[in-house]
Amino acid sequence: MLRDTIGAGSISCDRTFPYSSLVLMHRRRFLFAAASAAGASLAARSAPGEHFEIIYPQIRPGRDVHAAFALATLDLAMKAANASYSTRQVELVMERGRALAELASGTTINLHWTSMDAQAERGLNVVHIPIHRGLIGYRVFLIRQDRQPDFDRIETLDDLRSMTGVQGLGWIDTEIMRNAGLAVQTTSSYETIFKMVEGRRVDYFPRGAIEAYPEVESRKETEPSLAVENRLLLAYRSDFLFYVSPNQERLAATIARGFAAAWRDGSYLKLFNTHPYIQNGLKRTNLASRKIIRLDNPFLSDEDRAIPDMYWLHL
Question: What is the pTM of this model?
Fold first, then answer.
């Protein structure tokens, strides 16, 4: 749970969802969760002289404005682990479902960062340290500028249920919102989402606090009416994790070991507290001043729920 100290006025979602814990846990996932939580030294260390070629997908053609911090965090982790590595982005554009399928096969890509999700995590090597300290789960709304008065009247979760949101097909955020009784439309095309908001086919598009402004600004010419709604915050436990192919256990162990080390020596927090992508997003969204509507996330794995509190940002 995110701490209930973000500004004033928090609205909780009391609706529950039947959640069955995973019956079969992969031993390697337990190891990575333990390494992430405690910074333990893993047995699966990189061998002397070993070089990792890290291959990750292109999510959005020409507009993947969110990759810089994830890649900077990856670089920090690999250097903290004293690992030799190189990165390469494939030319093929992949939405989330396709990227996870390719990752599972291990033939096209071997690394992806995406939302924590029990179903997606099955069978993959997952580093259970949130990349953005939970900021992906603090969600502001992209709306048409002329719709702000409508959102000024929203005070409760029940009020928000009168609106229709939009998310990408296959995103776990869709299920989280629907579980809370919110109306959500989906599309398989990321670019179509913005056109749906611009064209009044939906009312709002929730985005992570650090995602919203770069997306609006990159679309000033194509969707000039888009704006970031200025007073509401949807909040639930979520963030991006590093997902690694099943056949790349050494790579996953190296990232986990290095990421934990970067936390211990303070270098990750230094990166977080100085990186423009993070700090500009925090400054512009002004999270502490917003009215919070909290949702439960019943789609977390046991490892997600066990992530230590220190890794989450408390505002």
Answer: 0.85
